[in-house]
Write a structure and sequence with these properties.
Length: 608
């Protein structure tokens, strides 16, 4: 199990609300914008659209508009959770609306499975794009017609041209950081020539890759993104939304600012790698506003540092490699940092929202410790998860004087003694759980030592311990198999010591151990997960991340759990006392075959 964070759980309320109030540069920008009223004249016609459409609308009731724009080419991961919490969270805080936009302008990579997965995950995190009966779920591909029209406008005003240089020449002529670019020989074509050529591209009269449409900006700009970026390419590919209507597709850098503007986004929040794109973002929208195609004021782009977590990889491509190379059992393997994986591991939406807040939002990159992620989960489960006893590495404990002390039942069998415990130590309204102690109980193998090391307070011959919620017992010895391995432990019951009965604490013990009755215990498979990588930054510096895979990231044990867990439903979360937080596996758990996943260990106070 991984190292627990030192944050004491009882500080949760304070620390969680303190972080919730902490400001960040985006909150400051939004507050300044609201105060200055820069967006207060903005109109919204009820749906995305161009200047003609929006100007006929009423004043936008949303004070800000943000968006979460995933490309539906994979499952969302914990980095996306940061972006979701930020965009939806800021909209909530400031009386705004956040759009869920599928950035599906690339025809090859998208599919419906990913679209459905993303919808499900954003809902699960607790966010909704339905506001007052309007669904703000949009598809960038619905804007292809506008994007095409905008491209024709740029051509006709001399701001774009069709370039027929080879890809290689285009790369060389773009220059680099130390060398300005060189104009293409096609840069001086007239708008009429360019328009004719571009329409031929659209009409499938040219081969894929034979020419592109480029914006005419500045080949000598120190910012390489401004050196006549490509805005359309020829690609004969079926699109999941538009079918074979198009054989030319807009480039991301061209599509994205337009998508934001059509949706009247006020604050377009993205990760730092887009910082150098901002001048282009502004340039393009200025041209289209100047031409009357889009409404002013334009959206503004703001960049923040992406979320990095130690021992975790957040690149869709690398996560896909783990799945396809069978290093894990699928996108939702509980070791995966995908949101479907974390959910199956037992992560709650609250814990991920807490992490997003605690990781902070800034321009300075950095690493959030894996232990912070775990602490967030522990804190949200501490208050809500019912407790249960489970023995993960069981050996039998025989209470040899049980029948003598307790007497026999009418049928001559050993009696059972009913025990009960609160479902949660601080939440009496959660009720109580019941189980029985009898002549034989399961205990953890590690709770017995024939020859105790110094400071060991649990079972060893001659020592007394309490069976939690039960009686005090005195260990008398053990039985070993031919291989020398301990097979069972013997002890004697000390009469009148049952928890909760008068005088039960007359005998003081230093150790309390958990246990499960042999008669009413249930068998369960328990999957003990550990971090997937042994290196804190598995893929930094171009390193082969597969080399630091933790070979012990999954250990499966056959455990015995207390009878209250027979009612567990998939996704139910528990604290197994002394062990940590566990969740009934949402895929494999059933009444006939209970399966529990380790979500996160406890801060271990039982170590001695
Ligand atoms: P990946 O690199 O894993 O493929 P991506 O950025 O290409 O991720 P998109 O679907 O394009 O994935 O991302 C949707 C949104 O999520 C974008 O706005 C992106 O900036 C944001 N995002 C992705 N990864 C992170 C991260 N680690 N931290 C914060 N935001 C992120
Ligand atoms: Mg991307």
């Amino acid at each position: 199990m991984s190292t627990p964070s030192p944050t004491p759980a009882k500080n949760m309320a304070t620390s969680a609300s303190e972080t919730a109030k902490s400001s960040n540069f985006l909150r400051q920008i939004i507050e300044t914008d609201i105060a200055s009223g820069i967006n207060s004249g903005r109109k919204w016609a009820g749906s995305p659209g161009d200047a003609a459409h929006q100007s006929a609308g009423a004043l936008d009731p949303a004070r800000i508009r943000t968006r979460f724009p995933p490309e539906p080419n994979g499952y969302l991961h914990i980095g996306h959770a940061k972006s979701i919490c930020l965009n939806f969270g800021l909209a909530q805080e400031y009386g705004g609306v956040c759009h869920l936009r599928f950035d599906d302008t690339n025809p090859e990579k998208e599919n419906q499975e990913f679209v459905n997965g993303i919808i499900d995950t954003v809902h699960w995190l607790g966010f909704d794009w339905n506001v007052n009966g309007t669904s703000h779920l949009y598809h960038a591909s619905d804007y292809f017609d506008f994007m095409y029209r905008a491209a024709e406008y740029l051509i006709s005003t001399g701001h774009a041209y069709v370039d027929e240089q080879s890809a290689e020449d285009m790369r060389i002529n773009r220059g680099d950081f130390s060398r300005p670019g060189t104009d293409s020989a096609f840069r001086t074509r007239t708008p009429a020539e360019n328009l004719a050529r571009f329409r031929e591209m659209r009409d499938a009269r040219h081969l894929d890759g034979s020419m592109v449409l480029r914006a005419k900006v500045d080949m000598a700009s120190p910012n390489i993104n401004m050196r006549d970026p490509t805005i359309y390419r020829i690609r004969r590919a079926e699109h999941h939304n538009t079918g074979d209507k198009w054989c030319i597709y807009p480039m991301y850098a061209y599509a994205h600012p337009i998508e934001d503007a059509l949706e009247q986004i006020t604050h377009s929040i993205c990760t730092l790698e887009f910082e150098d794109q901002r001048p282009w973002y502004d340039w393009l929208l200025e041209r289209l506003i100047e031409g009357g195609l889009l409404m002013a004021p334009p959206p503004r782009q703001y960049e923040f540092a992406r979320l990095n977590i130690t021992y975790v990889i957040t690149s869709k491509r690398k996560l896909a490699a783990l799945v396809y190379d069978h290093k894990v059992q699928g996108w939702d393997d509980p070791r995966m940092p995908t949101l479907v994986g974390l959910r199956r591991r037992g992560y709650t939406p609250q814990s991920l929202r807490l992490l997003a807040e605690r990781a902070g939002t800034s321009k300075a990159g950095g690493w959030t410790e894996y232990s912070t992620l775990e602490a967030c989960l522990r804190e949200t489960l501490e208050e809500t998860a019912p407790r249960a006893m489970a023995v993960l590495d069981p050996i039998r404990l025989v209470i040899t004087n049980w029948d003598e002390v307790m007497g026999l039942s009418a049928t001559g069998d050993s009696k059972l003694d009913a025990c009960s415990a609160p479902a949660h130590p601080h939440q009496p309204e959660m009720g109580r759980r019941s189980f029985s102690i009898g002549r034989e109980v399961w205990i953890e193998r590690g709770d017995f030592e024939e020859t105790p090391p110094k400071g060991f307070f649990r079972l060893y011959p001659g020592n007394k311990v309490r069976l939690k919620y039960g009686h005090v017992i005195a260990c008398t010895g053990c039985t070993k198999g031919a291989d020398g391995r301990v097979e069972s432990v013997q002890a004697e019951l000390i009469p009148d010591t049952k928890s909760g009965t008068p005088g039960s604490d007359a005998i003081k013990v230093k150790g309390v151990i958990t246990w499960v009755g042999v008669v009413d215990g249930k068998r369960a498979e328990v999957r003990l997960y550990d971090r997937l990588f042994n290196e804190p930054q598995p893929d930094s510096g171009g390193r082969d991340f597969l080399a630091s895979l933790n070979p012990n990231s999954l250990r499966v044990v056959q455990a015995i759990v207390e009878p209250s867990l027979a009612q567990a439903r998939p996704d139910d979360k528990f604290q197994f006392e002394r062990h940590g937080y566990f969740v009934a596996d949402r895929v494999d758990h059933s009444d006939a075959r209970p399966v529990f996943n380790l979500s996160v260990g406890l801060k271990d106070t039982w170590g001695k």
